[in-house]
# Entry
Amino acid sequence: MTERSEREDAMREAGRQQLREGKIDRREFLTRSMVAGLGIAGVGALGKGTMRSALAADPRPLTPTFYSWIQDLHPGIPEVNKKFPGLNYQIAPVEGFGIERFVAEGKNKESTWDVYVGQTPFVEMSALIKADVIEPWDNYIPKDVIDDIIPSIRAECTVNGKLYSWPFLLDIAGMGWHSGLTAKAGLPDKGPLTWDEYLAGAQKIVDSKAAPYGATFDPHGWRSLVPMAHSMSSAIYKDGLVDFTAEPVVEALKLMKKIMALGNPDILLEGASDGGVNGTPDEVSFGAQKVGFYTKYFNAPLRMAQYWDDPKLLHLGPLPKFTGGEGSTVFWTTGCALFKYGQNKEKAAEYIKALTYDPQIWKDSIVGTATAHPGQLPPYSSIYAAWNTNKPDWMPDFVSLVRSQLEKAKAIDNHVFGLQQFVIGKPIWETYLKGTEPDPKVALAKVNEAIAAEMKRG
Amino acid sequence: MGQSIAATGLTHNPAHRRGALSSRMMRLQNGVGAWLFLLPAVVFFVGYQVYPIFRVLWISFTDYQFLTNEPAHWVWFKNYAEALSDPLMWASLWRATYFTILFLPGTIILPLLLAILVDRVTQPRLATLYRVVLLIPAVIPSTLVFVLWKWMYNFQTGPINHLLVDTFGLFDARDAPQWLGGTALTLPSIAVMEVWWGLGYHTIFFLAGLAAIPKDLPEAARIDGASEWQVFWHVTRPRLAPVMMILVVLRFGSAMAVIDEYLIFGGFNRETPTYTWTMFMYDEAFKTGLWRQGFGAAIGMIGAVAMMIVVVFLLRIFRPRD
# Structure
């Protein structure tokens, strides 16, 4: 009896929702309400089709699932959630980038959630498409929003002309430096424009004993090897994968070895969390104020500078480039995936639009809050245009720097091996960095071979 | 049995026949009752143990890929042949074995020594205090243990290197030991953490074994002039053999199949010592390409069979010899 009553309530609520959204008229709503309320078999049969459609259309509240770090870094999200009464906000079971649960549910043509906020295109989007777990946003995202996405970001999120990731948080590789340490070393307070200047500055930091280490980087390929290669040229891709024998990649690897000589000795060690990917030694060095120069996505120096005596000593600049190089870098967005077997798809689009345009989230991200300073930026042209027209007093310079970098920056191509190519390749190219293989070209050719062999397996 | 009843001619007697029937019914009833009580355990055992094992075995003979919706094909021993011909399979098995060799002595020798010492404490409150202190690491949640030791071992900010570099000056900032993250010290470092973590738990095993030895046995040996070493070697040690067997077999299995610690302390770098066969299996089945679960299952079965062979060997070593 209670079950039937709950079912009737659900039908009434679903009907009300559709009436509010203009999907049904008042007459249809009253018919459904009567059917639900009377529960008479004959009338029930009469309204069976409409009841079923009402239940199928809205049988549960909008259920987004967020990657946990997003909530940690962006405390403004719950405020947006308040604008969506009944929202069933959840944290995703995806520690360490695992998407097993999503795929397993997709195979059964079902989904506990409607939208996944935490998808990084080059990491997992191809796999989720291949497994038929997600669907494009094109039928749900408003046209003005899709047109507002910065073109390079839109390209990153698009596969076969369809938008599979609604971009949210933008990360871009650049450079940060501890101006207190660089000043102590007698360096000017401006970022080096070329890698030669960068190396010379790092050497000076070490020689002057301003800090134990001159420069550092994160050894994971998408955070160092590829951004450094892009600074020479972003034409390093072949069939959706990095061609590790391309000249810019070879030069980037040589550069990494030169930086290593001035960096923290544990620079190549795996990180302390997320399967070795996060909590890396470069972050420890920079957070402990032991190193002057740092190249990684901006979020990292911003987060680490929070542990400094004076976080204002952090200065940011674009990634240096090779002399005569393209001066590009790497960016990626953390976006939202629409589950094919989820529900509430229009509602999901409405919610993600509100989330990704929320001004407080962006202010908190850029300025920082008491708990976090992610420095992640919005993916929409209109937001930057508004800030340009009327620059808020809280706006730091690095925002316009990032925006200008986006004109040259390129995302890593999407591929099922998008992330794994770096996981497989890292120990192999590190043979050059560790000195067991003297020729970087030989090491990088072996990387290509290893990836090809793994792809042949399936 | 039936034949002997017929031979005695008892079956011709209706009363006896009814008696035999009712006793058979009672046996049947008892049997049904027993099976009813066993049913939950059987369902659990079959559902959560037997079925998954056979399912994985079946998958290991197919080309099943998790990320595609195409049907799996039977490929016979192709996955096994491919895994066994991959140097990574052997390297990763050896890494797990190496960790086990480092870890197992710490689960036997140290806890045994501690148990013997604690067992000799006669003051009841002090004995309880020792037991509680020893058990503290065992009740700390794994996450906290990992966080604690990651901090202890941190190359740049950890207290161990602080002592070695800043306090004792044995190393400088560039050549200090790199304990975790893929160096040669990683597996010994994790083994030390694991030994510390399980010390109280393993000591309690031996304390239970020691409590089961009648006190008059060592006393009689001492009266006969045996030294403390002779008492331990000839009286105590043989009687602790069953405890040792349980510990060695259980901890061998868990050490060979470690994965959480490797995921946290090592990651998926295939050249690091923590990339063992369990990591290889997980990597292939849940990370790489289209998630080749047929191949991953074959790696798992090879690892499991290798472990079973060693377990049989260990059971033989520790078999009762009385």
Notes: Chain B is about 75% helix and 0% strand. The two ends of chain B are 36 Å apart (CA to CA). Chain B has a mean pLDDT of 89. Residues 2-60 of chain B form one domain.
